[in-house]
Specification:
heterotrimer; A alpha/beta (258); B alpha/beta (283); C alpha/beta (227); B: 283 residues; alpha/beta; Rossmann fold; 3-stranded antiparallel β-sheet; 7 helices; 18% strand; globular; C: 227 residues; 5-stranded parallel β-sheet; 4-stranded antiparallel β-sheet
Chain lengths: 258, 283, 227
């Protein structure tokens, strides 16, 4: 087991005026680990995710990523071109709403191919083959390759977004409520797909969600946030089955049993 | 003539525009913002090109205007008249004699030479606009050379039509750095952008942008390895002058579907006809 | 293989006036490779709690729970996960799976996780499902729709797919008919024979007598007993 974390978050803080977004968050994520971040709306989990993914600049703290070429680098202070390059290659971001992560006016194949072209792919045939392969891997019929995502169902759009993100073989995937807004039956299929991809590609992932069932199925580790602070942190099933913090106990006991 | 400052614009405005032009020449393909003025013509009629022409014209210049290759269309005639009136410069329809040529949608067929300036009228200067509407984002993409999106557009063309169907305003890369919209010239003209001895200036009035290609700038058209750029045109000779290698307009000649292909560059075509070349439709 | 030293467990119920409930006090015992130990004691004495602690599912307040060479009380989540993936299997009373995933894939998953090629993992899964008398017509369906007994057998097949050196079994023979009960007991004996250390909860006394080498009465670890 490697002892070099893929991502080291150190004392990340972000405030909006007097309001605390998140505060003093630190953790290490190791290769192949999937971490869930749960908490109610306004707990700071999305702020934290966006700070880590480079969408927001934190007020303080470091987000150190183990880059392929130069080893561990603080992505908060690295230059913008480097950070943007990272987010097209080694990082991926799956948005809650597929329309935020897809180009709705571009065909499914073009959506998947964009990241390849962004890193210099210039052979149409190769790009198309890769796009076809990835549509298959996310269970979208290859006959839909030239259709626009606006003609797809919500679940298909979300799967297309995942294909578009994973086509360049990233090592770290940020997911913001990836199953939010989907039917329960569609959620299950997506979760199974994500689990398989994470296992087969050895992906590390950070998943923000308010759905405890999602983290139980996908995440190895769990971080519970409240008012911008991490209140509990540990093995997913341990945190859910034997919660220690008052807030976590409340959160777990508040879930409706079906 | 004395009613106007030379070439209509006041000297301060011309200096401002010249500074933008110089900056554009210094950074080939980069879109320089400038404070576009109200001109006595509507947007879309070449206000950007007119301002650039006004800023570069000197009393000794000989001015030519073409619209779709023709010197005698309304737009070309009115702009030519405008500068005859406000600058008193000599005008011509002959490409070889002109020192400043303002153009819409074409590059003249005759080779340009050193000392000539070609001024393009540009409706939409931002090649990334159609796929990324946010100006803040497209500027960042230019500055960081993130041009994958341009190829997405070409990919979409091939997936839909089997080949790159973009036939005009075909995107180019300038000196392996900036991606540039060459204005809506046919892709047939793209090769003429590259390594031209003339200065090429691009003015977008409504969008307030100027960009430029200094002489002998390398300009390549974007493509895929397995779908290379193809500057093809209608596969006919000119009906009037029999030219095989010029860009043609298709003209409908009767109500029975009759049509003929003629050079879009009227000066080029006339010169050939005067030299004795005769196409099959020539009277 | 499995060692516990001075393990304590309390539950603090923050939402019920921070009531503190002592559950287990000063637990120490060890289970060697090839040994099967039964946890006994009346309902509510803490058998399942102890089992869950050994699996790392419940937190210990203090003490050492060593599986192989890892102390699960101190271990980082990723170490616990590695132990669960490679060293220690757990067959719970309830099957918990992603809905819609076919039974065959559910059973093969533990093998895929340790990098077994897909064809080998499937072959092993088929072998176990056959042995546990799950009709082949069900293999392509999700077990979420199965009867309680069928789910239990799928759960056992999944638990025995990878040959773990340490195994925790929570009522593995409950709700099984005689034939399948015998198959499960054989599986346990096979695991013992290859050197697995096993801790189990068996209400089925005959089963316990057949596979277990000794019994540990969890009542002895209750706070009342210690007082």
């Amino acid at each position: 087991m490697t002892d070099q974390p893929l991502l080291s978050v150190r004392k990340i803080a972000k405030t909006y005026g007097n309001h605390i977004g998140c505060e003093n968050v630190s953790f290490d994520l190791f290769p192949g680990e999937v971490m869930g971040i749960v908490g109610e709306s306004g707990s700071g989990k999305s702020t934290l995710l966006n700070c880590m993914a480079g969408h927001l600049t934190p007020d303080a703290g470091e987000v150190v990523f183990d880059t392929r070429v130069n080893g561990p680098r603080d992505t908060v202070t690295m230059s913008e071109p480097e950070r943007r390059m990272l987010s097209r290659t080694d990082w991926a971001f799956v948005h809650q709403h597929a329309r935020d992560g897809l180009r709705m006016g571009v065909s499914a194949g073009g959506n998947v191919g964009e990241r390849l072209m962004a890193v210099g792919a210039r052979n149409y045939g190769d790009i198309r083959d890769k796009a076809t392969d990835w549509l298959g891997r996310v269970e979208i019929d290859s006959s839909r390759i030239d259709d626009r995502p606006s003609t797809f169902s919500g679940g298909m759009q979300q799967r297309l977004q995942i294909a578009r993100n994973l086509v360049t073989g990233p090592r770290l995937v940020f997911m913001d409520e990836p199953t939010g807004g989907l039917d329960v039956s569609v959620q299950a299929r997506l979760l199974d797909l994500l689990r398989g991809l994470v296992r087969d590609m050895g992906l590390s992932a950070i998943i923000v969600t308010h759905d405890l069932a999602v983290v139980r199925l996908l995440a190895d580790r769990l971080m519970v946030m409240k008012s911008g602070q991490v209140v509990e942190n540990g093995l997913t099933d341990q945190v859910l089955d034997d919660p220690q913090h008052p807030y976590t106990q409340l959160l777990v006991s508040s879930v409706l049993q079906v | 003539m004395t009613d106007y400052n030379f070439a209509y614009l006041d000297e301060q405005t011309k200096r401002m525009i010249r500074r933008a032009i110089l900056k554009g020449l210094a950074i080939p393909g980069y879109q320089v913002p400038f404070a576009s003025r109200e001109m006595p013509m509507p947007y879309g009629w070449g206000t950007g090109g007119v301002q650039v022409s006004a800023a570069v014209l000197t009393p000794e210049d000989r001015f030519k205007v073409i619209d779709q290759g023709a010197d005698d269309t309304t737009n070309a005639v009115s702009i030519r008249k405008f500068f005859e009136h406000t600058a008193g410069v000599a005008t011509t329809t002959k490409t070889a004699e002109a020192t400043v040529i303002q153009t819409r949608h074409r590059i003249p067929e005759a080779d340009l030479g050193e000392g000539q300036i070609l001024v393009y009228q540009v409706p939409i200067p931002e090649p990334l606009r159609f796929l990324e509407p946010r100006e803040s984002e497209t500027r960042k993409m230019h500055s960081l050379e993130e041009y994958g999106l341009m190829h997405v557009k070409l990919y979409e063309d091939i997936s839909r039509h089997g080949h790159i169907a973009t036939a005009y305003a075909y995107p180019v890369k300038v000196e392996a750095r900036y991606v540039m919209d060459p204005s809506p010239i046919p892709k047939f003209d793209n090769p003429k952008l590259s390594n031209s001895p003339a200065i090429q200036l691009f003015g977008a009035g409504r969008e307030q942008r100027i960009y430029a290609l200094p002489p002998y700038t390398r300009v390549t058209s974007l493509d895929f390895e397995d779908h290379p750029f193809d500057p093809s045109k209608a596969d006919h000779p000119c009906g009037l002058c029999a030219a095989e290698d010029s860009y043609l307009d298709e003209v409908i000649v009767d109500d029975a579907g009759g049509r003929m292909f003629v050079c879009s560059d009227t000066d080029f075509c006339e010169a050939r006809q005067n030299a004795g070349h005769k196409g099959k439709d020539a009277a | 293989m499995i060692e516990l030293e001075n393990v304590y467990k309390t539950f603090t119920l923050h939402n019920q006036g921070a009531a503190v409930i002592d559950v287990l006090t000063d637990v120490s015992f060890a289970v060697a490779a090839g040994e099967c130990v039964a946890l006994t004691g009346s309902s509510g004495s803490g058998k399942s709690t102890l089992m869950r602690m050994i699996y790392g599912n419940y937190m210990a307040q203090s003490g050492v729970i060593r599986v192989g060479d890892v102390d699960l009380v101190q271990a980082q989540p990723r170490e616990v996960i590695r132990v669960r993936r490679e060293v220690m299997g757990y067959v719970s009373q309830f099957l918990r799976v992603v809905p819609r995933v076919p039974t065959l894939d559910v059973v093969a998953e533990p093998l895929l996780k340790i990098g077994t090629p897909a064809d080998k993992a499937k072959a092993r899964a088929q072998e176990l499902l056959e042995r546990l008398n799950i009709p082949q017509t069900l293999w392509g369906l999700s077990p979420t729709t199965f009867s309680g007994g069928e789910q239990q057998r799928v759960n056992i097949a999944r638990g025995f797919a990878h040959q773990f050196p340490a195994m925790l079994l929570d009522e593995p023979t409950a709700s099984l008919d005689a034939t399948n009960r015998a198959v499960v007991l054989e599986l346990i004996e096979d695991a013992k024979a290859r050197g697995a250390a096993i801790i189990g909860i068996f209400h089925d006394e005959a089963a316990r007598a057949r596979v277990c080498d000794r019994e540990i009465d969890v009542t002895g670890f209750s706070p009342q007993a210690a007082a």
